[in-house]
Each structure stands twice: as C-alpha cells, then as structure tokens.
Amino acid sequence: MPPDPTPPKKRAALYLRVSKRDGDQTEENQRLQLHRFLEQEGYDLARRDGTLREFVDRESGRKGRRERSAFADVFEAAERREFDTLVFWSLDRFSREGIRKTVAYLQQLEALGVRFRSYTEPYLSTENELVSHVLLGVLSYFAEYEAQKISRRTIAGLERARAEGKVLGRPSTFDEHRGTLEEMLDGGVAKAEMARRTGLAYNTVKGHLRRIETERAETDGSA
Predict the structure, then answer these.
(1) Tell me, what's the pLDDT at 76?
(2) Burial of 162: CB neighbours in 10 Å, binned 0-12, 13-18, 19+
C-alpha cells in the first residue's frame, strides 16, 4: 500500500484563565472559541491518558507560576512533550506579571520545543521558525528596555542621595532590593510574598513600597 500522504495533525493544548474580575469573560466562552479555532487551524487537542489537555486557572494573571496551579501544569506537560503548541485567548490571559516575566515564560516554552499562539492576537504566533526568532527578539528587547528603566531610576535615586549629602557606603536594603520590589509591585505580587522572596521583614517591605510610590508620584508630577 502507498504511504498515507496526509501529515499528522499538530497537537495543541489550551490554557484558559478567568478570575472574579473578568465580568463577561467566562471559561466556557474561551473554551468554545478556542475549540473552533483548533478545528479551523487543523490542530488535534492533545490528550493524556484520555484526558484533554485543557489547563484552566481561576486566578488573577498577576499571580505567578507557583500561585496558578494549572499554569505550572502547562510547563510540566510541556517538559513531557505532551503537545506541540500552546494556544491561549490573549497574552493577558496567559500572564499579567509584566513583560519581563511574560517573555521569560514564552522563552521557556520555546526552549522546550513548544510553540504558542494567541487566538485574539494573530501576530503572536511562533509556528513559523523565522517569525518565532523575530517575535521573541522584539519582546526580549522590550523586556530589556524595562529592566534598563528600573536601573536608571535606581541610579537617579543614588545620585540624588549624593547631592543631598547622604553617605553612600554599602547599599541600603532599599537600594539593594528596589528593582526587584518595583518589578513585583508592577506585577501585583502580594506584600507577604515580596517579603518571602527578598528575605526582608514584612514591615520593611511596606516601608520600601511607600517610598517607591512616593518617588514615582514626585516623578510623574514633575514630568
């Protein structure tokens, strides 16, 4: 018999996320549209032991990988090569932790040989290898730009301290952890989690965050 000329379908997994603040955006709305999308694009919905690989979180996208169990399961399944492509509704359904964290997650998928596609953002697709490198390169650029902005704010703070006559020896805990705290603040990380990650006391974290917010307000007011 001649070989079957029909290539096997690509295996896709779905990541769906809803939270209490989403209003009209429901899990079933996402699932229905994403299933239609897979059929139109010629994907098979991946299975494991007969179970469809649909990963559903009902948490804020500002929560990290540890706080979103289904999100963590996505990466474990990707490591087992259970699917070839991860499809999600939109990038903010995938993550709202800030561009640096989001790009890092996408790069992890890429390193595992898993492509990604956004249903509502067709340009966010790494199915094409050339497009994949360009897209991740552009996203990485913006992530680096964000990191440089944080660094420049830190340097500006040190220069202002010197101008005010403050003695700058060993960096204070504020200067040491400012960049990390700003990133977590923008990512919506809880204060208790910030304290755990940095090793700072909870009240110290609160004080540092007040200072960051005050300095940001001053900068915005003078812009």
Answers:
(1) 95
(2) exposed
Q: Reduce the DSSP state of residue 169 to 3 states and report it.
A: coil
- Spatial separation of the C-alpha atoms in residues 155 and 107, rounded to whole Å: 29
- Determine whether domain 10-138 maps to CATH 3.40.50.1390: yes
* Per-residue pLDDT tens over the stretch 45-97: 999 988 899 999 988 888 888 889 999 999 999 999 999 999 999 888 888 88
What are the residue boundaries of the structural domains of the chain, listed by start? 10-138, 169-222
Q: At what angle do helices 202-222 and 129-163 cross, to 10 degrees?
A: 90
Strands (E), the chain: 10-17, 43-45, 47-48, 51-52, 54-57, 85-88, 115-118
Q: How many residues does the chain have?
A: 223
Rounded CA gap, 145 and 147, in Å? 5
What is the band of 21 on the pLDDT scale with cuts at 50, 70, 90?
A: low
Q: Assess contact for 158 and 115: CB atoms under 8 A.
A: no
Q: Partners of 12 in the beta sheet?
A: 45, 85
Q: pTM to 2 decimals? A: 0.59
Residues 6+ apart with CB under 8 A from 89: 16, 17, 30, 33, 34, 118, 119, 120
- The DSSP line for 12-66 is EEEEEE--GGGTT--HHHHHHHHHHHHHHHTEEEPEETTEE-EEEE-S-TTS-TT
Distance, CA of 52 to CA of 9 (rounded, Å): 15
